[in-house]
Amino acid sequence: MKKLQHLSFIAILLTAFVNTSFSQGSQIFVDQSWLQNHQSDANLVLLHVADQKSYDAGHIKGAQLINPPEFTVVRDGLYWELPETSKMDSTLASKGINTDSRIVLYYGGDDHAATFRLFFTLDYFGLADRVSILDGGLKGWKSNNLPITKEQPTVEPTSIGTVKLKRSKKIKVDKKYVRKSADKGDINLIDARRATFYSGSEYGNYKRGGHILGAGNICWLDVVDENMFIKDKSVLDQMYQSQGVADGEQVVAYCHVGLRASTIYTLAKYLGYSARLYDGSFNEWDTLPEEYKVENGK
After folding, report:
1. Which residue ranges does the record assign to the Rhodanese domain (predicted)?
2. Distance CA 107, CA 142 (A)
3. Fold observed for domain 8-143
4. Fold adopted by 172-295
5. How far apart are alpha carbons 110 and 224 in whole angstroms?
6. Core-most of 43, 76, 138, 220, by most CB within 10 Å?
7. What is the pLDDT of residues 224-235, one digit of tens each?
8. pTM (predicted TM-score)
9. Do the domains spanning 8-143 and 172-295 agree at the CATH topology level?
């Protein structure tokens, strides 16, 4: 039973030191044993990242629904854009999140991308030290025959602005940063799209098929197993190293609109790399002048 077979003393240690470890910065992933040990914690906020239909079909006890429109906006024709601070304030308040809350996210469906996008969004607003992702999400939870419910928890909203949000100036980069840094060889660009889009054999409505010049490719689907558990750290690290990423180097992830790149961004952080995300991604890059170069066929 993957992720569930732990020696009891490890669980005891986790319980004893959880407040200390979180105060020093949140672990990016927690496993099922951790959640079982902390489901009753008064400060735990468990968020089921999916749509209403998924939530109503069954969720982990105590989980609240957070629907992607609650933490994304459509801007300039692009979906999955980062929200304004005021919108994020309202969303957090509606979930009862306060300055003591420990937030655990899990994917409620068969795609983990929206959950990683929410992690990136909360990181962007300065909250990464109190946020973790449940490894395996709901599918992994059910694969180990763990209980789900249709009961909704009672939530008391907090006041808007209770949690102070501060936008990061570092983790989100723009087209000029990508072009300048890539030309100098200062970054490792990773394209999170499927290999067919990366190679240019499939390009949908794009004018140019392929990828940003110099980018490697790690498809967002390839980082999890059949039950949606994150692959072993050594396997993930090899994926990044195979694309030319070395210890201590910076990874800049992109995809179509920044959604799936959030997975590659989060895992880069998990592996200890310096991570950033080009949010305009290929949807923007494809509209730019020719000096914003594209290559294909690889």
Report:
1. 40-150, 183-292
2. 12
3. Oxidized Rhodanese; domain 1 (3.40.250)
4. Oxidized Rhodanese; domain 1 (3.40.250)
5. 11
6. 138
7. 999 999 999 999
8. 0.91
9. yes
